Amino acid sequence: MKKIIIILFFAGIAAVGFSQQKIQPDWQDFTKVVNAETGQNKISVIYVYTTPCDLCTTTEETILADTTVVGVLKRNFIATKFDARTRENVVVKGQSYPYSGNEEHGTNIYAIMLVDGIMGFPTFVFLNKDGEKIGKHYFTKDFAPVKDIAEFLQILQYYSSGAYEETSYEEWVKTQ
Questions:
Q1: What are the pLDDT digits (tens) for 12-51?
Q2: Residue 154: is it exposed, middle or buried by C-beta count within 10 angstroms (0-12/13-18/19+)?
Q3: What is the mean pLDDT of residues 141-146?
Q4: What residue ranges in 1-151 does DSSP mark as E strands?
Q5: CA 151, 125, 93: angle at the middle one, nearest 5?
Q6: How far apart are CA 147 and CA 143, in angstroms?
Q7: 102, 104, 78: which is closest to 25 by C-alpha?
Q8: Core-most of 42, 63, 139, 175, by most CB within 10 Å?
């Protein structure tokens, strides 16, 4: 009887531990993704964030933790993330992008390029299979933010369906 109780006790602890694990996208190596070295025939999505960033944390805890979102990302995209404030020199297709700024405030030049100089984070940037930028969507309060999981799923559908090749996201949404 004691053995059964001990087994049930440890099984309960294990179950609690597993249930508290967060689901996340299958994040790929950033350098390989932006240099189109992934060898996959999928669109890439770069989650550009900063730390500290309350809205980035909220995005990670809600949208990027949603099982449907994670499933769509895993099936249809190559997902990677990039801290816009990284101090590391980033090399993309032979071009070097350094950190710019002082000790307290600064941004990597590649992040500035990814978001077209509009410094609102988090931002999702989409690249075609050749590593060329095909779109971006801001999740910030100031730049037409993505409001919820349903809207992000719609954005993912726009890119995964290839609709971006024919029409703008705004026009495509009107037809849905």
A1: 444 444 445 678 899 999 988 888 776 678 999 999 999 8
A2: middle
A3: 56
A4: 43-49, 77-83, 90-92, 95-97, 99-101, 106-108, 123-127, 133-138
A5: 165
A6: 11
A7: 78
A8: 139
Mean pLDDT taken over the chain: 84
Alpha-carbon distance of 146 to 150, in angstroms, equals 9
Going by pLDDT thresholds of 50, 70 and 90, the confidence category of residue 5 is very low
The mean pLDDT of 90-94, rounded to a whole number, is 92
Burial category of 81 from C-beta neighbours within 10 Å (exposed 0-12, middle 13-18, buried 19 and up): buried
Using an 8 Å Cβ cutoff, are 101 and 54 in contact? no
* CA 161 – CA 35 distance, rounded (Å): 23
Reduce the DSSP state of residue 57 to 3 states and report it. helix
Helix (H, G, I), strand (E, B) or coil at 96: strand
User: How many residues does this entry show for the chain?
Assistant: 176
Identify which has the larger pLDDT, 112 or 119: 112
Measure the CA–CA gap between 14 and 3, rounded to whole angstroms. 16
